[in-house]
Amino acid sequence: MAKIKIKQVGSPIRRTKDQRATLVGLGLNKLHRMSELEDTPEVRGMIRKVQHMVQVVE
């Protein structure tokens, strides 16, 4: 299956608890960290939820 790389570019400070939990679920919790995950609809939905704090790296 295809992989997708995600980089955190926004801070979780002053964000809701569910957005913070989504970042942790994606394997991110500090700025400029990167995570490589399977490209599934579930992961795409999580990225969409916190799209203002992450960047998809090609």
TrEMBL record:
Q: Which CDD domains match?
A: Ribosomal_L30 (cd01658)
Q: Name one GO molecular function term.
A: structural constituent of ribosome
Keywords recorded for this protein, A-Z: Ribonucleoprotein, Ribosomal protein
Its Gene Ontology biological processes? translation
Question: Domain Large ribosomal subunit protein uL30-like ferredoxin-like fold: where?
Answer: 4-54
Q: Which Pfam families match?
A: Ribosomal_L30
Its GO CC terms are: cytosolic large ribosomal subunit
Q: Which domain of life is it from?
A: Bacteria
Task: Note the subunit structure.
Answer: Part of the 50S ribosomal subunit.
- Could you say which protein family the record assigns here? Belongs to the universal ribosomal protein uL30 family.
Mind telling me what this protein is named? Large ribosomal subunit protein uL30
Q: Which organism is it from?
A: Sphingosinicella soli
- Name of encoding gene: rpmD
